[in-house]
């Protein structure tokens, strides 16, 4: 969970990071650099905590079936790292994120056909409906993906933006807006963001809707206090993105736990999820001294 949401905050392909950049209007590469810089403290603390836990609880054995299945099913030479390397290097060269995704995806597709010796039709089908691992030991790890798997996310984003437009046009959020104004004045901006993120995650059970609604409800407050959109984007990325994963019935929590076949008892060990907002509370004024 900690590793997944480290990527959710900082990866060029993160749907949450892309959505935050889109709704706040900030430049994506700059937003990612800020996210990584702010995330260094919780990352370091998480690594230290897991190092101590690993020393106290060493792994007794490794599933040899998974290792053998990987070696038998895939070519694992250095060229397979090219798509991942492109994802890291191209954003640093100020290449637009859309072009980064296209180039990395094209490289992965070519490697699938050449190095992994998949047929062209099979590779295209995997792009659409997702990959299905043939080895039983790899099915739960690698099966999935494809355009079809993203339809639910696309629908949620469309629904969330539609709801945001309805709320704005009908002034349905006006009573809540007045309460938010009062809360922001008393608790300051980021503590209020944490409470709002927790409330919306519990009610809507979804990161996407939380990001969209918080932006809708708080963007005017940031403008009234003469705060930049970059600050709103950073506050979102350090609140609702990880807080949603701490709500057991939220999609951001339930889906990963289901995939890993573990229960909510894993959440206390997912230290990165709650270290992010806690550490940001401490360092926020160094980045945004006015609030």
Report on this model:
The protein has one domain (2-72, 149-287). Helices cover 71% and strands 0% of the residues. The chain has 17 helices and no strands. The chain has helices at residues 2-10, 15-24, 28-38, 40-56, 64-73, 82-92, 97-114, 120-129, 139-142, 151-170, 174-187, 189-204, 207-224, 229-237, 240-243, 251-259, 271-287. Helix 2 packs parallel to helix 13, helix 6 packs antiparallel against helix 7 (97-114) and helix 11 packs across helix 12. The model has no long low-confidence stretch (mean pLDDT 83).
Task: Describe the structure in brief.
By secondary structure, the protein is mainly alpha-helical. Helices cover 71% and strands 0% of the residues.
Give the key terms.
291 residues, mainly alpha
Please give the structural blueprint.
Elements: H1 2-10, H2 15-24, H3 28-38, H4 40-56, H5 64-73, H6 82-92, H7 97-114, H8 120-129, H9 139-142, H10 151-170, H11 174-187, H12 189-204, H13 207-224, H14 229-237, H15 240-243, H16 251-259, H17 271-287
Helix pairs in contact: 2-13, 2-14, 4-17, 6-7, 10-13, 11-12, 12-13, 13-14
Estimated share of beta-strand residues: under 5%
Cα radius of gyration in angstroms: 21 Å
Q: Please give the domain count.
A: 1
Order of helices and strands: HHHHHHHHHHHHHHHHH
Number of strands: 0
Count helical runs: 17
Low-confidence segments, given as residue ranges, are: none
User: Helix/strand/pairing class, anyone?
Assistant: mainly alpha
Largest sheet: none
The coarse overall form would be globular
Instruction: Round the mean pLDDT to the nearest integer and report it.
Output: 83
Our measurement of the CA-to-CA distance between the termini, rounded to an integer number of angstroms, reads: 30 Å
Helix content: over 70%
